[in-house]
Specification:
By secondary structure, the protein is an alpha/beta fold. It has 3 domains: 9-261, Thiamin diphosphate (ThDP)-binding fold, Pyr/PP domains (Rossmann fold); 273-433, Rossmann fold, CATH 3.40.50; 448-570, 3-Layer(aba) Sandwich (Rossmann fold). Helices cover 39% and strands 17% of the residues. The strands form 5 sheets. A 7-stranded mixed beta sheet has the order 10-9-11-12-14-13-19, sandwiched between helices. It has a 5-stranded parallel beta sheet with strand order 2-3-4-6-5, sandwiched between helices. α11 packs parallel to α17 and α18 packs across α22.
Length: 573
């Protein structure tokens, strides 16, 4: 049944629809196992998504998936089955909703908590323009911990524009869902003997202007078709929240039993050492000797390598749920009270806490260490998950020191030195460490010369760029051009002593970050008016699409050949 054409769901029987669900589930498993991607969340959404397409009229009606990593069935049902083998590959279809990809994707998502606000905006636009369509937000219980959800709830009555909010409750985000709202939803999900208590709790949604309806089995296709049909009629006059329970990993036993491990499947190399592994083991070692150490995450504990730390030191372990801004403020408060908090977070998600990092942490000069994972190009999740902006948005903040280790060994050195660094510190690093460079001296705040050469200087930060720089320098040497290679392991403040002493006329900077506001921009400003010829290798002023890390780095011209060619052509001019 799956092909380039959109299946005619409305003409199918329940038996045929259930057979289609099996086919969809098999296609998702086969593709994710080859390409990587989000597995367990998508498997749990199959019946609910089929029911949505059976009852509603897309693309006239609008569906917005919170985060968006549960949209694979939606894509398969909307004319993209024939391209599904290209999922997350460069030039292929995205793992998230993309307006540029299909009229059935009405709104791009990638971070949690945005769907209800977006749905209200769509509904208000519909009413202002005098149009007639339904608006549905599909949001998981993990996203319900995000504060933006409650800002949106606060506007439901004020907007007076009916929307349907489907709460897909699977008791999981990336880590198990935590917090008071999770406990509240569990009470709503309780058995019939709790009915009176449930009725009392339902009123919280009614006070926001939402009619609550739940709880139902989201993996029961017949039930979902019936309930969605009923709710569709209610949407003529009011906003509804439909609470359904789904099983993460549904239909694939290994994923059902391991929903956390199969939330995201990687197609990466098994030979790499994840920086997160080093973070977890090193912080645990430090914490054994230093009772000030506290680890903080925002619903990402295992992905950030902190599971063992949380097990060993539960009193000094804090998971706030999907609330990065909240986490940053908590860290600031811990720090001003004399503790040493480490906030581990993906680069793309730290963006959500920019104001709190600036005001609460840095303006107070609070000694918080930001451990920024998946920095630089992160690959196949695409624009919303690339970590190509953190050097830019952090480098403008006073008091903040920014470190970029050359490998996992240097990362460990930075972590070991960090408890005694009495100021805000950000350490940014990619997911995987593939290289370990020759050892050298390490001094906090100082750069390292990794190769001598008098014709030009390559100043690179981070493992990926240093690897390319050293390879390019070797090729240039074969052509008679000798390059100095510097490990710029502290981006802010710059090592101005070394920069001032460099005699080279030709200076090349390299970074796994956007050029604007990044490392190269800082070096450009330092050398302004000096007469030096500077070339910056970085990413342009655009959002980086999905694709393999090496493919994308090459797309933007940061390859050994590009750089060695530039050196050979320009070093003696």
């Amino acid at each position: 049944m799956l092909d380039e054409n959109i299946p005619q769901l409305k003409s199918m029987s329940i038996d045929e629809l259930n057979a289609l669900c099996d086919e969809l589930r098999n296609k998702i498993v086969d593709t994710v196992m080859k390409n990587g991607g989000h597995l367990s969340s998508n498997l749990g959404m199959v019946e609910l998504t089929v029911a949505l397409h059976y009852v509603f009229d897309f693309p006239k009606d609008k569906v917005i998936y919170d985060v968006g990593h549960q949209c694979y069935t939606h894509k398969l049902l909307t004319g993209r089955a024939g391209k599904f083998d290209t999922l997350r590959k460069y030039g292929g279809i995205s793992g998230f909703p993309k307006r540029e990809e299909s009229v059935y994707d009405c709104y791009n998502t990638g971070h949690s908590g945005t769907s209800i606000s977006a749905a209200l905006g769509f509904a208000k636009a519909r009413d202002i323009k005098g149009e007639d369509y339904n608006v549905i937000a599909v949001i998981g219980d993990g996203s319900f911990s995000n504060g933006l959800v409650y800002e949106a709830f606060n506007s439901v009555s004020e907007f007076n524009s009916p929307v349907l909010i489907i709460l897909n409750d699977n008791q999981m985000s990336i880590s198990p869902t935590i917090g008071s709202m999770h406990e509240y939803l569990e009470k709503l999900s309780a058995e019939s003997e709790q009915r009176d208590k449930k009725r009392r709790h339902e009123t919280i949604f009614e006070r926001f202007g939402l009619t609550y309806d739940g709880v139902y089995d989201g993996n029961d296709l017949g039930c979902m078709i019936q309930k969605l049909s009923e709710v569709k009629q209610k949407l003529r006059t009011r906003s509804v929240i439909l609470h359904v329970l789904t099983k993460k990993g549904k239909g694939y036993l290994f994923s059902e039993e391991n929903p956390q491990e199969t939330h995201g499947i990687s197609a990466g190399s098994a030979t790499a050492t994840e920086y997160s592994t080093v973070l977890g083991s090193t912080l645990s070692d430090i914490a054994a000797q230093d009772e000030r150490i506290v680890a903080v995450t925002a619903a990402m504990t295992p992905s950030l390598g902190l599971s063992d730390f949380f097990e060993k030191y539960p009193a000094r372990s804090i998971d706030v749920g999907i609330c990065e801004s909240h986490a940053a403020v908590v860290c600031a408060a811990l720090a001003v009270q004399g503790l040493r908090p480490y906030f581990a977070v993906y680069s793309t998600f730290l963006q959500r806490a920019f104001d709190e990092v600036m005001v609460d942490i840095c303006s107070q000069n609070a000694p918080v260490t930001l451990c920024i994972d998946r920095a630089g190009i992160s690959g196949s999740d695409g624009e919303t998950h690339q970590g190509a902006f953190d050097l830019s948005y952090l480098s403008m903040i006073p008091h903040l020191t920014i470190a970029v280790p050359k490998d996992v060994v240097e990362f460990k050195r930075m972590l070991l030195a960090s408890p005694d660094f009495n100021a805000p510190l950000a350490i940014r690093y990619p997911k995987d460490g593939f290289r370990r460079f020759d050892g050298g001296s390490f001094e906090f705040g100082k750069w390292e010369v990794m190769r001598d050469g008098g014709d030009c200087v390559l100043i690179a930060c981070g493992e990926r760029m240093i690897s390319i720089a050293l390879s390019a320098a070797r090729i240039a040497a074969d052509d008679g051009v000798e390059c100095c290679v510097i490990n710029a392991r502290f981006v802010k403040p710059l090592d101005e002593v070394m920069l001032s002493a460099l005699p080279h006329k030709h200076v090349i900077t390299m970074e796994d970050n956007s050029l604007i506001g990044g490392f190269g921009s800082l070096v450009d400003c330092f050398y302004a008016g000096s007469g030096k010829k500077i070339k910056n290798f970085a990413y342009p002023d655009e959002f980086i699409p999905h694709g393999g890390v090496n493919t994308l780095i090459a797309k933007y011209g940061i390859t050994v050949k590009n750089i060695s060619d530039y050196i050979i052509e320009n070093a003696h001019r």
